[in-house]
Design brief:
With about 240 residues, the protein is an alpha+beta fold. About 15% of the residues lie in helices and about 35% in strands. It has a single domain (about 10-230), classed as Endonuclease/exonuclease/phosphatase (Deoxyribonuclease I, Chain A, 4-Layer Sandwich), CATH 3.60.10. It has helices at about 30-40, 60-70, 135-150, 175, and strands at about 10-15, 40-50, 70-80, 85-90, 95-100, 110-120, 125-130, 155-160, 180-185, 200-205, 210-215, 225-230. The termini are close together.
C-alpha cells in the first residue's frame, strides 16, 4: 500500500486597507505586485473597496482577482451607488460549494465569512475566510460561528483572515486553537512595526505542516502586513 507524498499549498491573508498605504497613497498596483511576488495559490483579501478608484478604472475586485488566478468569490458587506466594500477569496484552482455567511453581530458593522472547497492537485481542501469585528463580544460570537461552519467538513480545512484579536487573546485563540492546532504566529499589525497578530492562518487536521511568514517588503502598501503560509496536508493513501 503506497501513500502519496504531501503537496504544498501556499495561502495568503491580507487586509489591504482599501489599497491605501501608510503613506496615504492609493495604489492598487503595489498591492497586486506584492501578491504576485508571493505567488499564493489561494488568497483571502479584506477591506477591498471599489468606492475608491480613479475615474473609469476597473473595479479593485477585478484587478485583485487577476493577481492570483481566474477563480474567486466576493463578499460585499457594504453596497452603495458609488461602489462596494468587503472581502474576497481568490484561487488559481477551481472553487466549488461556495457560500457567503452573514456573521454580523447585533447592530455592529456588517461582517461576512466566505467558505469554499478548493480543487487542488492533491484532491480538495476547504477554506473559510473572515474579517472579524472590533468588539470583544462580537469576536467571541464570530469565532464560535466559524468553528460551526468548519466542523461541517471532513476534508482538510484552512481558516484565515483578519481576526482583530488585539484586546484579549482568549477571544479568538481559545475558540480556534483546539480546532485548528496548526497556525501562523507572526505579528502583522501595524505594518511599520508589527506587534499584534491580527491576521492569522489556521489549519486542520493536527498533522498538517504549516510554515508561515510575513512579507515586510509590503509594509508601505497597507497598515497590515500580508501573512503567507506554505501548507502540507497529511499524505493520503490513493487506494483508500
Amino acid at each position: 500500500m503506497s501513500v502519496a507524498p504531501a503537496i504544498r499549498v501556499r495561502v495568503m491573508t491580507w487586509n489591504i486597507h482599501g489599497g491605501v498605504g501608510i503613506d496615504r497613497r492609493f495604489d492598487l498596483d503595489r498591492i497586486c505586485a506584492a501578491i504576485k511576488r508571493n505567488a499564493p495559490d489561494v488568497a483571502a483579501l479584506q477591506e477591498v473597496d471599489s468606492r475608491r478608484r480613479a475615474g473609469g478604472a476597473r473595479s479593485p475586485f477585478e484587478l485583485l482577482r487577476q493577481a492570483v488566478g481566474e477563480h474567486g468569490i466576493d463578499a460585499r458587506s457594504i453596497v452603495t451607488a458609488d461602489g462596494d466594500y468587503g472581502q474576497m477569496v481568490v484561487s488559481r484552482w477551481p472553487l466549488s460549494n461556495t457560500e457567503v455567511h452573514d456573521i454580523t453581530h447585533e447592530q455592529r458593522e456588517p461582517r461576512r465569512a466566505i467558505a469554499a472547497d478548493v480543487a487542488w492537485p492533491g484532491g480538495r481542501f476547504h477554506v473559510v475566510a473572515a474579517h472579524f469585528g472590533l468588539a470583544l463580544a462580537e469576536r467571541r460570537v464570530q469565532a464560535r460561528r466559524l468553528v460551526e461552519i468548519a466542523r461541517r467538513h471532513t476534508i482538510p480545512t484552512v481558516m484565515l483572515g483578519d481576526f482583530n484579536d488585539f484586546i484579549w487573546p482568549g477571544s479568538l485563540r481559545a475558540a480556534l486553537k483546539r480546532e485548528f492546532p496548526a497556525r501562523s504566529r507572526q505579528a502583522s499589525f501595524p505594518s511599520w512595526l508589527p506587534l499584534l497578530r491580527l491576521d492569522r492562518i489556521f489549519c486542520w487536521p493536527r498533522e498538517t505542516e504549516l510554515k508561515s511568514f510575513v512579507d515586510r517588503e509590503a509594509r508601505l502598501a497597507s497598515d497590515h502586513l500580508p501573512v503567507v503560509a506554505d501548507i502540507a496536508f497529511p499524505p493520503v493513501d490513493p487506494t483508500s
